[in-house]
Amino acid sequence: GQNIDQPTEMTATEGAIVQINCTYQTSGFNGLFWYQQHAGEAPTFLSYNVLDGLEEKGRFSSFLSRSKGYSYLLLKELQMKDSASYLCAARDSNYQLIWGAGTKLIIKP
Amino acid sequence: IAGITQAPTSQILAAGRRMTLRCTQDMRHNAMYWYRQDLGLGLRLIHYSNTAGTTGKGEVPDGYSVSRANTDDFPLTLASAVPSQTSVYFCASSPDSSSGANVLTFGAGSRLTVL
Questions:
Q1: How far is A109 from chain B (nearest CA, A)?
Q2: FRET label pair with A19: which of A27, A53, A65, B66, CA 20 to 30 Å apart?
Q3: pLDDT tens, B82-94?
Q4: CB A19 within 8 Å of CB A74
Q5: CA separation (Å) from A28 to A1, A31, A66, B114, B115?
């Protein structure tokens, strides 16, 4: 079956760095996405990886290893506004997105 | 402001009633999607449309129907609501159904409670 695993909840301190891991099993693979979702709001796009390696975008970076079925989202210089859920999604051979349940990130002062 | 508009924002509905959730986008995106989001679960695809005039079933289509008469509108209908359909429903769109990053833009969501 198709499956996405990511931790349910993580806690980090303002100004620190946090890494949110995601492992996936899909029928074929056509890319890995990260979305951010603040409580009570819609998900918004953060990053897309289709090739192995690190993609950096400001304070956020995303890494992909296709051979390991593994990705992580790295958030640097954490701010209180980064408190949100982070959704990992893998796109399968039919170009359908398989979503993880999300990781709730709590930032403490 | 370009984006997706969903209505209603929230609704309490008696079991057995018919309900249509509306979704309109003004980005001229070809593909549109309906997801439901439940606590502890990932977003689950209900129905999708790759282009106007076509629709397809997602992971959890039972009890729901959709239509795509034009590019902009993609309503979701619950023919006879049941309590298990209590959820937050998100409409989304993307430029097309495959190729490249194909980023999804989501509406603000419709919170539906079926009693």
A1: 26
A2: A27
A3: 999 999 999 999 9
A4: yes
A5: 12, 10, 11, 37, 40
